[in-house]
Amino acid sequence: MVKIVPDTSIIIDQQVSVLVQDLYKGAEVLIPEAVPSEIENHANKRKEIGYQGLEELKKLQQLSTEGIITLEYVGRRPKLDEISIAGGGEIDAMIRDIARKYHAILVTSDKLQKEIAEAQGVETYFYKKEVEPISTGPTELESYFSKDISSIHLRENTTPMAKKGTPGHIELIELDYVPLRYRDLDRISKEIIEQSKKRHDCFIEIDKRGATVIQFGDLRVTIAKPPFSDGFEITAIKPVNKLDLDDYDVSDKLLERLSNDAKGILIAGSPGAGKSTFAQALAEYYYYDMEQMVKTMESPRDLNLDDNITQYAPLEGDMENTADILLLVRPDFTIFDEVRKTRDFEIYSDMRLAGVGMIGVVHATRAIDAVQRFIGRLELGVIPSVIDTTIYINNGEIDTVYSIELTVKVPTGMLEADLSRPVIEIKDFESGELFYEIYTYGEQTIVMDINKTQRQDDDKEDQKSPVSKIVERVIRKEVNKVAPHAIMEVSLISDKRALLEIDPDHTGAVIGKNGRTIAQIEERAGISIEVEELEVKDIDNRSPINVNVSGNYLSLNFRKEDIGSSYDIIVEDEYLFTATVGKKANIRLKKDIEMAEIVIEAMKKGEPVYARLRNEDLY
């Protein structure tokens, strides 16, 4: 009986199950324990070759069960460090030792393994992969593309679809009325993967179980399979337009800023809006017109740039390693496509603060959203040092340009000089009009829409401004820390003073010894506070009550003398529900019910919650 020892390469290529039925019928197949260990390591890393190897091992087990071959696992399982340095040849050496020990034929598709085995006197069968010549014609996937088609969408059991047109003028069209089958997609994907291994302009960006991303020339191809997706799917995206900066409506003022002042640029927009196309135009403007050294950080590398601009992928799967190399390369500008995760924002910031001009591509539905994505990820005062210009792209055109500056001032809507603080001003670049202010108030970070504030100032006098609501909310929060069950009403007397009316039982706790507690609250709220005792009487037959959230419950707090009484709960002048005060002088609601959600939403707005003693004679 012929004995054969397959190595990892031939198992991954799934050829052993073929050879034992054609060339080595009835063979005794000896699989070194090192082989499944290496395959398992690949599978744990979510590499497709790991799952291919597992499928082949299952086939061999089935052939053994059917009596076609004899299957045995031999040798020892390699140690973790031996597996981790498999690329150094340790695993291959173990497999050759097994073949020599059992006087078996080593079966491999690895040319180097073959050469070393023969040099050591080990009988070897080398499976030579059929190398097809690089096709000069288009692949089956590429043949779907025609003029103005930007993306192809293929899915099993559905007809092939495509998006046609330019950003802002996209339509979804059907390419064929015949649905594609699994075998069709399998054929197309295998052709793309094989060609990507042969062509110098193609590379596999991501290879995980159920998902493969390939940069195939100027196509970005995403292949999705179960268990990642619920069906076999192939998506290919192609840049439709390649534009110069001159093709955009760039004002002389903006061109001057891009040429001389802008060093931290964000290009924002929704998916398909034309962000990448504009980034390409800007990159080539800096390289050719401004004679600046430009590099890119991309995952995947799908920007359609000239060969003079080097495109970098994550080094060893980590963009931080790429940033380390780029700092040694010393580019004048780096395009980061795209800034998405928290670590991406940190890397973008680190490189900008190191002096590299940065152009970040960010998904956002509004221009301000691009800036807001940095809040919480960076210290607020650092943001203007990292971003100075935001360009919002919509329908393939420049829609909005914001300039970002840091100043110290009293935020709009406040007058008290003591309220001065660092404020980030976001202005329309062309007109200089102030659109947004970002600052901290208490423990909160506020993004204030200036136009909205001014519009509300023009409304009725009794309508609360956003600033008033913020001040009231901060005061309520601070008072609740020292008197969590207090009943209170907060109102703004002027831009300089607020009135806090609180029930007599908690007045002393809020004021504190020698007024220390209220002084601390004033400092945190940034406003002078006048404290008065709240007359617990019906005002329009209703009184304000204290509300707090604890765990999964919302608690509406009353006085001990209210125990057993029924109250109507009123929120924003609307009757909500009626309940009886329990033994602990409160009414408890689960947070996830609709009534509790309405109360919580009102609290977020700074709106008080009222209770009205239910008079049964009226019902």
Describe the overall structure:
By secondary structure, this protein is of the alpha/beta class. The protein folds into 5 domains: 1-124, Rossmann fold; 138-235, Beta-Lactamase; 243-451, Rossmann fold, CATH 3.40.50; 464-531, K homology (KH) domain (GMP Synthetase, Chain A, domain 3, 2-Layer Sandwich), CATH 3.30.300; 540-611. It has 19 helices and 31 strands. Strands 15-14-16-17-13-18-19-20-21-22 form a 10-stranded mixed sheet, sandwiched between helices. Strand 18 and strand 19 form a beta hairpin. Helix 11 (319-329) runs parallel beside helix 12. The longest helix has 18 residues, at 48-65.
Strand content: 25-35%
**Domain module count:** 5
The proportion of residues forming helix, as a percent range, comes to 25-40%
Structural class: alpha/beta
Classified by CATH, the class of the largest domain is Alpha Beta
CATH topology of the largest domain: Rossmann fold
Using DSSP, what is the number of strands?
Answer: 31
What's the pLDDT, averaged over the residues?
85
Quick synopsis:
This protein has 619 residues and is of the alpha/beta class.
What is the fold's blueprint, element by element?
Elements: E1 3-6, H1 8-12, H2 16-22, E2 28-32, H3 34-44, H4 48-65, E3 70-74, H5 80-84, H6 90-101, E4 105-108, H7 111-119, E5 124-126, E6 149-155, E7 161-166, E8 169-174, H8 182-198, E9 202-208, E10 211-216, E11 219-224, E12 233-237, H9 252-261, E13 264-269, H10 275-289, E14 294-298, E15 310-312, H11 319-329, E16 333-337, H12 342-353, E17 357-363, H13 367-372, H14 383-386, E18 389-394, E19 397-409, E20 421-428, E21 434-441, E22 444-449, H15 450-457, H16 466-482, E23 488-492, E24 497-502, H17 504-511, H18 516-525, E25 528-533, E26 543-550, E27 553-557, E28 566-571, E29 574-580, E30 586-590, H19 594-604, E31 609-613
Parallel strand pairs: 1-2, 1-4, 2-3, 4-5, 13-17, 13-18, 14-15, 14-16, 16-17, 24-25
Antiparallel strand pairs: 6-7, 6-12, 7-8, 9-10, 10-11, 11-12, 18-19, 19-20, 20-21, 21-22, 23-24, 26-27, 26-31, 27-30, 28-29, 28-31
Domain AAA+ ATPase: 261-397
GO molecular function, one term: RNA binding
Protein name: ATPase
